[in-house]
Prior knowledge:
By secondary structure, the protein is of the alpha/beta class. Helices cover 39% and strands 20% of the residues. The protein has helices at 16-32, 68-86, 113-116, 123-139; strands spanning 2-6, 37-42, 56-60, 90-94, 105-109, 142-145. A six-stranded parallel sheet has the order 3-2-1-4-5-6, sandwiched between helices. Helix 1 links the parallel strand 1 (2-6) and strand 2 (37-42). The longest helix has 19 residues, at 68-86.
Amino acid sequence: xxxxxxxxxxxxxxxxxxxxxxxxxxxxxxxxxxxxxxxxxxxxxxxxxxxxxxxxxxxxxxxxxxxxxxxxxxxxxxxxxxxxxxxxxxxxxxxxxxxxxxxxxxxxxxxxxxxxxxxxxxxxxxxxxxxxxxxxxxxxxxxxxxxx
Length: 148
């Protein structure tokens, strides 16, 4: 099975806790499931955090920064191209899914705070979040949320 994992965390500022979750969780999954190939998609080639396993392929998207247009480009075009290139069987993403792909996907989101606390977000980001997350959730096979 070919499993693509988006290791880019949407947003800016200190995201160390979320990045740590991705690295710790998927480095263990990758080491336990050597029969599968994992495509790790990120802004830059990750350090040895994920290990140097033979079942890892790194895909660098090179798209850094925050903004609705960049996220749209990333999740609708760049990631879809990577999923097609590697003929991925499953896609796991933190924050957003890819509404345009036919590949089954799982979205991991810590809290869906944009839905419950809209006042914490810029208006332009909020409109994008609500529309994009809603479409991503409808398209995904599963959703993992850590909070109530």
